[in-house]
Amino acid sequence: MTQTATPTGVPVAPNVDDGKPRNFLSRLTGIQSFQILLVLIVIFLIFTILAPTIFPQWTNIRQIVQNVSILAVLGIGMTFVIITSGIDLSVGSVLVFSGVVSAKVMVALGGQGWGTAVIGLIVAIVVGLAWGLLNGFLIAKAKVPPLIVTLGTLGAALGLAQVLTDGVDIRDVPTVLTDTIGYGNVWGTTIPLISLLALIIVIIFAVILHKTKFGLYTFAVGSNEEAARRVGVKVDRQLISIYALSGALAGLGGLLSLSQYGTTAIAGQSQTNLNVIAAVVIGGTSIFGGVGTIFGTMVGLFIPAVLQNGFVIIGVQPFWQQVAVGAVLVAAVYIDQRRRASAARGAGSKSKVSLSSLWSKKK
Known about the structure:
This protein has 363 residues and is an all-alpha fold. The chain is 70% helix and 1% strand. The longest helix has 27 residues, at 114-140. It is globular. 45% of the residues are buried.
């Protein structure tokens, strides 16, 4: 098996490549995110056939899209984290804590206008950023495993949120947030404003992940951390930045949650962490690091949302959604493992992340 060497002589693992020329269609169908998109389309068509007068209607699709919007913001940060072969179990609790602190600040300021709302937004993002920096520092500098660190901050953030509120949700949210971001539409349409905002954020970070040095370094760290260090990537700083990003987006999600539900919903985010992680992995981001797309994550988010919505409409217990999502998740990880096993046996010469291109960019 041949390997590609970086300018420093550090070899990196090859991608799957059987040496045979492939046309565009065969390459496209071999992409896991495209495969999972086909699964989503099939699920959508099945529910359309079973409930043709309800499921495919715009009012129902609009509800699905709106329900996914907050998870999409969280999924962006989680995609960056898992690409580095890390994990962040704390995003749901950070969302709750950020929302609680933001709500308390807005209540203290008083008022229902945009001035109070903007301050609440800044507070939510800064609080989430602080939790993310804590996670990143403990992981990168203290060398504590990400699973342990984020499991600890999961409990700490949720516990502190309950301490600050005595376990009682704060419901005094500025009406400008609920009337515009939470329940408002894009001017002249029936498209939810919260969904448009989520889409803009998704596009921005998709460009960052796939078209910038920050994204390239993220893939490099997940592909081969030691090789990335040898070509000059500041791995610790990159990891801290990525976990800080995840925390900041969770903080933003906290404000979006306040806007949509009009309350802090302390007890309503217990499954958020696992739902986001499942969506990212289902969408083709490898839990082993080095592989992932924002597009795949978005597709992965819609599968459980469509399943839950469709099951309710056709009268099936929504608990079956968890069974279906679990099966798809296991299948996604299995496919990823098979792909990696094939790469290990193959004779491909392309690296999973081109650290030679990384070297040239740094020069």
